[in-house]
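ingest -> validate -> predict -> emit
validate: passed (alphabet ok, no gaps, 140 aa)
predict: started
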Amino acid sequence: MEYLPLALLLLGGFVLSLLASMAQHRYYMRTVNKLAAQEHRAGVTLVSGRATGRLRGAVVLLLVRRSDSVVERALVMQGASVLARFRERPQLTGELSTASSRAGSTAIAGAVEDARDRYRQMQSGTTIDRGSAVRMRTAR
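emit:
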């Protein structure tokens, strides 16, 4: 009986953590769907990449023009908490092959490289068995 307050505190922390993680996932999906709806046109691919670090990770969403592999728009979510939000990163726009050199941090560079690898796998037609990448359908 003496451990009941501690058990309730731990349970409350677990539930709070679960709710915060679910809220961040919903935010990520809302952002992906909003970007896909805004940029729904022929000839572009929306691809995501992620990288983890010791303290902070990063997730990138890149809108890539398929004709010449140029990043037209880039959003980055970087941080160590569930309060991290996507922000536009215009410095990542341009040639996809050199985007990681313009990243500004190792976590973002790793996420850009992951997105670039996923994009190349999508273009080559091989299956992607890790994570997710969204390919926008061509307009008809």
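The first helix runs from residue 4 to 38.
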